[in-house]
Each structure stands twice: as C-alpha cells, then as structure tokens.
Amino acid sequence: MNDRRTDPQWEDLDHGLLIGSVVLLAVGALAGLGGSLLAGAAAAKAARSWLRRADLGPTDLAKLKWAQARAAAGAGAGAWRAAEPGDRRAVPVP
Questions:
Q1: Helices 15-54 & 58-82, crossing angle to 10 degrees?
Q2: Please, what is the Cα angle at 12 between 17 and 4, to 5 degrees?
Q3: pTM of full prediction above 0.70
Q4: What is the SS3 assignment for 29-77?
Q5: Are 56 and 64 in contact (CB under 8 A)?
Q6: Higher-confidence residue: 59 or 85?
C-alpha cells in the first residue's frame, strides 16, 4: 500500500498570497466603513437642514407627510381602478 497522502494540507497554501488577500480585504473594509460613515453624515446634515427649513415641529411635519402619503396612495389606487378592463370610467390610452 502507498503511504502518499492525498488530503489537502495547510502547507499547500501560498502564505504570501493569503496574507496579501487578508490585508487587501481589511483595507477595502475600512474604506467601505469610512465611505458609509461619510454618507451617513451627509444624510444627517441634509435632514437637519430640511427640518430647519420646514418651519414645523417634527410631529406636525410627520402628520403632514403622512397625510400627503395617504392622498398619493388614494390617488394611485383610484387611477389603478379606473384603468381596469371593462370599467366605464377607464381612460383610453392613446
């Protein structure tokens, strides 16, 4: 019988390539984290600026936006129902 081993060994790995890949992955992760932090800071700054311009308190602004969203959803649902086949109110498509 043969004494040759055929299972993979840790010695088969190129340690230089493995260390290089880990370093590059770490650098990429840090760059991605930094980019995410900068994007979050920009979004927070824009939100603060928008709230200052709104001249409404956060509760009033939330109520206004909720009312706008409900009105838009109702208009969209009405348009959807009006476009159903066989509906007399359907608007003809040119």
A1: 100
A2: 170
A3: no
A4: HHHHHHHHHHHHHHHHHHHHHHHHHHCCCHHHHHHHHHHHHHHHHHHHH
A5: yes
A6: 59
